[in-house]
Each structure stands twice: as structure tokens, then as C-alpha cells.
Amino acid sequence: MAEIEDGQKFDYVIVGAGSAGCVLANRLSEDPSVTVALLEAGGKNNSLLVKMPAGVGSLIKAKGASNWGFETVPQQFMNNRRLYQPRGRGWGGSSAINGMIYIRGHARDYDQWRQMGLNGWGYADVLPYFKRAQHHEDGADSFNGEGGPLWVSRGPPGDPIYKAFIQAGKQAGYPVTRDFNGYQQEGVGPYHLTIRDGERWSAAAAYLNAIVASRPNLKVISNAFAGRVLFEKKRAIGVEFSGGPGKVTQKVYANNEVLVCGGAFQSPHLLQLSGIGPADELKKLGIDVVQDAPDVGRNLQDHLDACIIYEMTKPISMYSKTKGLKQPMIGLQYLFTKQGPGRTNHLHAGAFLKTRGELDRPDIQLHVVNAVMIDHAKVTPDRDGFTVHTCQLRPESKGTVTLASTNPFDAPLIDPRYLAEENDRRTMRDSVRMVRDICSQEALDLYRGPEYRPGPHVRTDAEIDAWIRDNAETIYHPVGTVRMGVDDKAPLDEQLRVRGVEGLRVVDASVMPTLVGGNTNAPTIMIAEKIADVLRGKKPLPPQDVRVAEDARVAV
Helices 422-439 and 160-171, interaxial angle, to 10°? Predict the structure, then answer.
């Protein structure tokens, strides 16, 4: 940890060492004439559980040093349940505790942004930045990059359940897709992973390694909790932070800009604490209004997920592999040899499918896990089984993130309003039936036992809906709470500058105007790569046109 003096000045002050903050810290400090301070509320995240891919279950399920462990307010359309909301804390942010799936979303997701007036954010514009960030172990092609910091590997063959699931999807009538980030997302297939040589390759591993963190012009301050952005009239001039409740408060100043990278929950939280948000709500709490921005904290979108679980007829799931003394032995084997079950995430296959044929892109995503997964792995399995996660990719329900109090250490009030819209309920219901259809195919006969959850007794629309309300959870992809847009109500412009003030940008998943069709870590890294060029005054990378050939969609 690098210490700084109270009141010290830097060219840029970055709040949050998550997926976006790590990228910006790296790219901005590449210029030795530019000074950068990176504030992170957590630590270095260098524990064995973080490095070992199989540690993901332990990291996700519990609040701790690497996990903020938030929860929602009671969800009106889900029997007033409070849903758990894990978010990464420490170097790498949520990329240090996520499932390590490398997915970009669908090309039309970004073309939709361009059609909303956000020039420079179409698929042709963002594809070069996805590729610049990436080093795919298979090498470069039209859609994948080589030589970038973010290592992407093809998942190992793994347990036979993954190959059987892909074959079952084919038998159910779906295409097989070799690369969900390539010319065709729709289909069943293997996932590509942010794992390098058996080690989690978080944004910190990729962009904030020991060499980068030791640059003399970059100061990384761990255990630095940002309390508010400091303003001089309408210009952001720095950040106030401390080591925690009751700790001494310090200030750090920015000559050029303050860059907020706290994520979809904490970026709007910090802005509101700093006087940027809905003026009426801020005034009620006694916060001086710097800029009335009613949409800060609105437009929250997230992927709601339901788990269909089958027992297995063979002892090949993680239950049998971790019984008794086997579990500590996995950790020891990995610690000393980096071999064994610890070196992967046990999530090697999935699918992107349409619940209706007329859709222009898949609206559900499946993740297959070789284990019984209940309530974010909080429930200890008592049998062999496999889980198929299904989530709706483009929910119509939108929620909010608001202040609970003026105390920066009080978690924000998170209200995704899951299942508020009928189409969301229909899509989730249809997806359960689609998963059941795939899992009934002959290819899974050798492994599939009885349906464990929701169980064969749950059949009608009403029964499936009730089960989803009782059991669905987030699959960790909140976005949109400080959206970019061309309309006056959008908190950010297309270069992610906060409207109405100077010297302040937000760079993270909160800026997405709509939720992309897939996992959100890779898109967040792409966004930061793109804005790093803007901050450095560089010309954007040339767009890469995507054309449809007779035999395949290719990038040229």
C-alpha cells in the first residue's frame, strides 16, 4: 500500500480499483508525465481463494474482505424477499470474485446504443477495444485479440456433464456455437474463461500487477473508503476518504479529473453523497445540491436467475469430489502444484437462446455447473447433481439505488424491482421449460437423475411463477444507474462526463444505458479502455466493420 500526504495532488484521482478502475490506472499511468492516485476501499485480494478459480463459491456466498455482501430492499414482486447482492471489494473489484466467464454481449446490444444517439458506441466501434484488451490463448482472429492484458482461455473439457449438455442442446434443436463472442452468439457451447494457467485472471491481475502498481507516477491506496467528491463551485477538485468508520479523514486532489469507478451500486451512492442526484431527495437529507440530476440512481437493470437442478446417477459432481477430507486436499494440491479440481471454475458450458422465434437476438442465457447450487452456494449440497442457471438477458423491469442516510458507510438502498413487468415473468417461465426440454434429451440419460428443483410437481404457469418468486436470485450483473445518453436527463454524455459539472466522469457498468446480453465484466473493461483513449487525447481505434457473408458473419 502506498501512503500519501493529506492534500496531495495528482493529475487524476480514480475511485475504485474494480474492472474499470484497474484499466484506467494502468492506461493513464503509461504516460510517465501523468500522475494518478487510485483509491480502493478493500485490500490487494491476493488470497488463495481469490487466485484459485474453484474458490469462487466461497467468495460469492459470504460477505467478507473481498465481498461487500449487499442486499436489496424487500422485493414487491418476489414475496417481499430481500435478495443477496454480492459485489467485489478490493483490487479487481467484482472480477476478483466472479465466475470468470468471458462474454461481451450481442453485437446488436451496442448497435442499439448507437441508435440511441451514442455515436462511437456501436459494435464496429467497440470491437477493437474488446480485442485490444484481450489475449486469447488461441491467438487473434476477426473477433479475438492477442497481446492484451486480459488473458482469455478456452475452458478445459472438464467433467463429461458439459459435453453431454452441449450434445443435449443440439438434440433439442439448437445450434452449437464454438465461440459466443464470435460470429454467432445463439446456441449451446463452451464458455471462454478469464483464467490463465489455472489462476483467476482478474482485472487486477491483468492491469494492476506488481510492475504496474510500482510505477512512480501511480499511487494505489488500499483500505481507502471514499466519502464524497470535493467541489469548487461546479468543478470536481478531489476526493475525501478514510480508512473506515471513526478513522481519520484525508483529502486528495485532482488537477485534471476525478474518475468514479465504484460500480452500479456505489457510483450513484457516492455521487448522491457528493450532491449530484435528485435535488428534492438530497435536500431532504440535508445534502447541499451541486447538480440536480434526477436520473442518478435510476435505470437499475440486472439479470435475475433461476436454478433448475437435477440429481446425478454417477458420483462425478463437486459433491463427491469434495466430501470429507477431499476439500482441504483440493486446496493443498492447488497451493503446491496448481493442479487438480482447484484450477478451474467448474462452469464450462452454457447457452444463449430465444424464447420466441421472432426475436432478433437471444433473450436468455444458461450457465451449467457440475454441482448442486442453491442460494449462491450458501446451502451445502447433500447429493451429486448438476445445476442449470437460466437468466433473462434484457429485463424490462427497472429499479433504483438511493441513499439510506448521509453516512457514507451505510449501504445504499438497492431496489431492482425484479419481475415488475409481465414480459419478465413470461420469459423466466418459458426459460424453465426450455431448460427442462434440453435436460430431457438422450445425451444426458447417462448422468441425469430425478429433477431436484423445482421438482416434477411444478408444472403450470402459476406453479412455475410461484417457484421463481420464491427462489430466483441475481446472477450479479447490475448496470445502468448513471447512464450515458444524449437526452438532457441522462447523467452522463457519450464521453461519460457528468452533465452540469466539470472535471468528473463515471466509468464502470453503471454507465450502460441498457443491459447487454451476457456477463458484464468484459464490457466494463472495454468501456474503460475506450475512455482511457479519450482521457489521453488519442484518436479512437478505427471501427472494425462487420459484414454478413454467405457462409458466416465475419469481421473485416
Answer: 110
Give the Å distances, CA to CA, from 105 to 121, 144, 397, 456, 554. Answer: 13, 14, 19, 33, 17
CA dihedral in degrees (183, 23, 54, 49; nearest 10)? 180
Give the single-character DSSP code of 194.
S
Listed in order, the ranges of the chain carrying CATH 3.30.410.40 are 156-190+304-392+420-471
DSSP codes of every residue in 385-436: EEEEEEEESS-S--BEEE-S-S-TTSPPEEE--TT-SHHHHHHHHHHHHHHH
pLDDT tens, position by position, 212-251: 999 999 999 999 999 999 999 999 999 999 999 999 999 9
- 195-196/187-190 β-pairing: unpaired
Residues of the chain with CATH 3.50.50.60: 1-66+83-151+198-301+478-537
3-state secondary structure 436-485: HHHHCCHHHCCCEEEEEECCCCCCCHHHHHHHHHHHCEECCCCECCCCEC
> What CATH number has the domain spanning 1-66+83-151+198-301+478-537?
3.50.50.60
Domain 156-190+304-392+420-471 sits in CATH at 3.30.410.40
Indicate which residues carry an active-site annotation.
477
Q: What is the pTM of this model?
A: 0.97
